[in-house]
């Protein structure tokens, strides 16, 4: 299963973030920061796979153990401090579970395309999927750049929805994906022209 898809620029600014597991916005921001701290430091000469379980997964599990030991050594009386600690432990546990993942990415010019997937997914298969996504964006925007993603956010999301839905891969055939995208654009134009005609008719009756 795909847990999350990120497009981040070279300065760590999010251009697209899609999570397929339930996780609140604050934790999503933490995930983006942690993931960018990894990919931004990696050379283009190294492989495009990272086992997050051995880095951030371990980090958050150690945090949980430390907080648990602090609670255990305190008095048996429940305090506000303990309740706050328990909430933080819960957040760290969710992050540790999320980071039991593989990070697979490609770096194109100023953008990182990052997929976070569980252990069952094929690294090479996800690399091919990233390539399909980028080629679809290239066909739609003619040599896609960062500004295309910023100013056509809805279309980028639509293209992504044709490829991945609910964390599962729907389609990998580029021609089929683009047929669906252009079909939707055609329907949008038809609906807009129909709306204009109806407005014109209403004005003529007034």
Task: Give a brief outline of the structure.
This protein has seven helices and seven strands, in the order E-E-H-E-H-H-E-E-H-H-H-E-E-H. With 206 residues, the protein is α+β, with helices and mostly antiparallel strands.
Summary keywords:
206 residues, alpha+beta, five-stranded antiparallel beta sheet, two-stranded antiparallel ribbon, 7 helices
Overview of this structure, please?
- This protein has 206 residues and is an alpha+beta fold.
- It has helices at 25-39, 56-73, 80-98, 123-141, 146-151, 153-163, 174-205; strands at 2-9, 14-19, 49-51, 102-108, 111-117, 164-165, 168-169.
- Strands 2-1-5-4-3 form a five-stranded antiparallel beta sheet, with helices on both faces. It has a two-stranded antiparallel ribbon with strand order 6-7.
- It is globular and about 60 Å long.
- The termini are far apart.
- 19% of the residues are buried.
What oligomeric assembly is this protein in?
Answer: single chain
Helix content: 55-70%
H/I helix tally: 7
Biggest sheet: strands side by side, in what order? 2-1-5-4-3
| Sheet of most strands | 5 strands, antiparallel
Rg measurement, Å: 22 Å
Query: Mean pLDDT, as a whole number?
Result: 80
Q: In percent terms, what proportion of residues is strand?
A: 15-25%
């Amino acid at each position: 299963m795909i847990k999350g898809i990120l497009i981040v620029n070279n300065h760590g600014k999010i251009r697209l973030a899609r999570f397929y597991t339930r996780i609140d916005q604050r934790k999503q921001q933490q995930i983006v920061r942690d993931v960018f701290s990894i990919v931004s430091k990696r050379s283009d000469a190294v492989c495009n796979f990272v086992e997050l379980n051995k880095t951030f997964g371990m980090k958050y599990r150690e945090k949980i153990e430390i907080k648990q030991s602090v609670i255990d050594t305190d008095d048996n009386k429940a305090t506000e401090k303990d309740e706050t600690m328990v909430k933080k432990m819960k957040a760290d546990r969710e992050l540790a579970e999320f980071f039991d993942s593989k990070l697979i990415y490609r770096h194109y010019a100023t953008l990182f395309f990052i997929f976070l997937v569980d252990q069952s997914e094929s690294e090479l298969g996800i690399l091919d999927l990233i390539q399909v996504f980028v080629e679809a964006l290239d066909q739609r925007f003619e040599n896609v750049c960062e500004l295309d993603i910023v100013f056509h956010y809805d279309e980028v999301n639509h293209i992504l929805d044709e490829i991945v839905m609910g964390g599962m891969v729907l389609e990998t055939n580029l021609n089929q994906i683009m047929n669906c995208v252009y079909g939707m654009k055609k329907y949008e134009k038809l609906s807009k022209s129909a709306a204009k005609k109806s407005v014109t008719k209403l004005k003529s009756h007034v």
